[in-house]
Amino acid sequence: MPVNKKISVILPTLNERLNIVALINRIHSELRDYNHEILVVDDDSPDGTYQVVLDLNYVYVKAILRTKNHGLANSIRCGLENAKGQIFIVMDSDFNHKPEYLSFMVQSLLHYDCVFASRFLYGGGMNNLLHQILSWVFNVFIRFMVGGKILDSLYGFFAIKRETIEQLNYDNIFWGYGDFCMRLLYYLQKNRADILQMPAVNGKRRGGKGNRRFLGVFFQYFVAALKLIYKARIKDKCIKK
Ligand SMILES: Nc1nc2c(ncn2[C@@H]2O[C@H](COP(=O)(O)OP(=O)(O)OP(=O)(O)O)[C@@H](O)[C@H]2O)c(=O)[nH]1
Ligand SMILES: [Mg+2]
Fold first, then answer.
1. N or C: less crowded end of the chain, CB within 10 Å?
2. Residue 28 domain-assigned?
């Protein structure tokens, strides 16, 4: 059955000048059978990512420059609020999230409300074993403490129907860094959304260095997890394992 809804791909960027053009071209090719747009949401990158995207002048690409309230989650929210499609895809802009999964994700939405990529299902994984183990332990901790059935709450690579995500209050979800993803999944499960988890191998960053140090991010995620645990166990008491 063909998917005839418009797809909006949201790409948050911070210093991705070396990746963004190749990624846009690749996404356009993967989604060639679908009506789609690509929104690049740039936090005023010092390396000129925004200008590079503007210079492309592709009709299906929209570049958004954000000059305040910087941050990954805020950028994704901005992308969602400016998207015109009925299906949203959120992914990193450095090839960590592999574009070859996109058409499978879109087709999955014929049967599910949303699909989230997971590094911890059979068939998925990461190249860096230490990061993989730490991320896995952290995800087990979240699942044990918050509840629910999600194996990878932090990967941040997903496709979702507009009507599903728009039922949620974005203020509760979109703050911080990649930790927005565990809050998003928490509220989706609370709403009884049909969620597909699909295995995904983390791709290699193509160009540039990335913006975060693993341990700094880990600490930030830990604080965010404690807040979510408080919410789930004390305030809401609603998700069962
Ligand atoms: N708009 C915006 N995008 C961001 C921000 N921080 C990170 N990003 C983007 O979010 C995605 C993930 O960030 P990365 O720096 O790749 O984080 P990572 O994947 O944990 O790190 P690497 O392993 O080095 O790739 C990339 O597409 C970044 O360009 C931000 O503050 N604002
Ligand atoms: Mg990355």
1. N
2. yes
- Going from the Cα of 97 to the center of ligand 1, the distance in angstroms, rounded, reads 11
Q: Is residue 162 part of a domain?
A: yes
What's the total number of domains in the chain? 1
Name the residue range of residue 93's domain: 7-236
Can you give the pTM of this predicted structure?
A: 0.95
Q: Please say if the pLDDT value at position 240 is more than 60.
A: no
Which residue among 155, 175, 211, 221 has the greatest number of ligand 1 atoms within 8 angstroms of its CB, and so is best to mutate? 211
Tell me, yes or no, whether 241 lies in a domain: no
Residue 132 lies inside a defined structural domain of this protein: yes
pLDDT digits (tens, 9 = 90+) for 179-228: 999 999 999 999 999 999 999 999 999 999 887 777 888 899 999 999 99
Q: Where are the beta strands (DSSP E) in the chain?
A: 7-13, 36-42, 61-65, 87-90, 114-118, 158-161, 195-199
- Can you give the CATH number for the domain in which 86 is found? 3.90.550.10
Write out residues with Cβ below 6 Å of ligand 1. 12-14, 16, 41-43, 70-72, 75, 92-94, 96, 205, 210-212
Tell me which residue has its CA closest to atom 22 in ligand 1. Answer: 210
